[in-house]
Design brief:
Distance between the termini: 53 Å
Strand content: 15-25%
Largest sheet: 5 strands, antiparallel
Number of strands: 10
Strand order of the largest sheet: 2-1-5-4-3
Number of helices: 9
Helix content: 40-55%
Radius of gyration: 27 Å
Shape: globular
Order of helices and strands: HHEEHHEEEHHHEHEEHEE
Structural class: alpha+beta
């Protein structure tokens, strides 16, 4: 770590700064899941040195970034970017070389590769790795102070100090995530044991009764009705176990994570980019509704992949106290809405049925060579 700044700061003032930094990072660590913690740490770093822009990247272990949380850029600006940062250029230097960078003009550094299209203009850079020993947990990137001055040695010291506390916070959050995954695996194992010990044995018993009835000359319709009733009860047990298990998989995830996980299970061509704009927070509405929304998104994306020849899909989820609104739009070849009832294989009927089941409304906008725009709204009040 850099030595304490050689200024006229008193020891008392420095200790107060350390206390404030520690308190801010510990507060960020209470944000919940890993992505929220990363976002809050990025916000704290921006506030600490009064930067216009801040970001926290987490490496994926393969030379790119698993997470990239930004502050100072609006969602609309992010949506216009050609692509998210990929851990190259100066970002890669901090990630791969574990090097602290403090530059007045990034473009003057030979390692700079510039910005993707539609990226805001940035000049100054303060980059600091977040690590514990030799383990790299992330990288903090600060760009352009609000007062127009370049980052100082004092700024560097503050961010290095913040990075030390951030390493502890990130490690603790990752540990909590691992514990949550273990808990979910244990829940799966418990359900599996209950299926084996309860439901499967019940089905086995029903099978024996049916076989005995088929061999008996004295079997009556009442006997058969009783067996059927037992079978119906067993099917309900299975249904209950499955629903509880499926709900449990959504319980620990944010809305963004749930949508992202849904997309990750699809076969997406390399030529198609999917951007998600959704709250990175645990849903306040019922989890079975989140499951339905993810299924609708699954169906819509599958349709686009099969039929639209699109290059980009935007998924936007907004929620208020009264309604959940989801927009799925692509830049594909589209179709004439007058032919919507005759278009085979689009799966719009399935989507509309799922929306209707949840008391929602749906609107489709499309035209040939103009893409397709699907919006559905589901009232939250009707779900309570």
């Amino acid at each position: 770590m850099t030595n304490l700044p050689s200024s006229h700061q008193s020891t008392k003032f420095i200790l107060e700064q350390l206390k404030d930094i520690a308190a801010s990072v510990m507060s960020a660590a209470e944000a919940g899941n890993t992505e929220k913690v990363l976002q809050r740490i990025a916000e704290v770093s921006q506030e600490l040195v009064q930067a216009k822009y801040a970001a926290l990247g987490v490496p994926d272990g393969h030379g790119s970034l698993k997470y990239f949380k930004v502050v100072g850029i609006t969602p609309e600006e992010i949506a216009r970017l050609e692509h998210y940062p990929e851990g190259k250029g100066l970002l890669g230097a901090i990630m791969n070389e574990r090097e602290i960078l403090r530059l007045e003009n990034m473009k003057d550094d030979s390692r700079s590769v510039g910005f993707p299209a539609n990226h805001p203009k940035m000049d100054n850079l303060l980059g600091v790795p977040i690590q514990v020993g030799k383990q790299l947990l992330g990288m903090l990137y600060l760009c352009d102070r609000q007062d127009g001055q370049p980052f100082s040695i004092e700024d560097q010291w503050l961010i290095e100090t913040l990075a030390g506390y951030a390493a502890l916070a990130i490690t603790g959050t990752q540990l909590s995530d691992q514990i949550a995954k273990i808990t979910l695996l244990e829940e799966r194992e418990r359900v599996g044991m209950e299926l084996h010990d309860g439901v499967i044995q019940s089905l086995y018993a029903v099978g024996i009764k049916l076989k005995l009835l088929s061999l008996s000359e004295k079997a009556t319709s009442t006997d058969l009705d009783q067996v059927i009733a037992n079978l119906d009860n067993t099917i309900e047990d299975i249904r209950g176990y499955i629903l509880n298990l499926k709900t449990a998989t959504y319980h620990k995830k944010t809305i963004f994570q749930s949508i992202n996980d849904t997309i990750s299970r699809l076969a997406i061509p390399e030529t198609l980019k999917i951007k998600i704009h959704a709250p990175d927070e645990i849903p306040l509405f019922p989890l079975d509704l989140l499951e339905s929304i993810c299924q609708i998104i699954n169906e819509a994306i599958s349709n686009t992949v099969r039929h639209a020849n699109a290059s980009i899909i935007n998924i936007i989820l907004e929620q208020t106290s009264d309604v959940i609104r989801v927009t799925i739009e692509d830049d594909g070849k589209g179709f004439n809405l007058k032919d919507i009832d005759n278009v085979k294989g689009l799966g719009l009927r399935n989507i509309r049925q799922r929306v209707t089941i949840n008391h929602g409304t749906m609107r489709v906008e499309s035209d040939k060579n103009s893409g397709t725009h699907i919006t559905f709204e589901i009232p939250i009040k009707s779900l309570r």
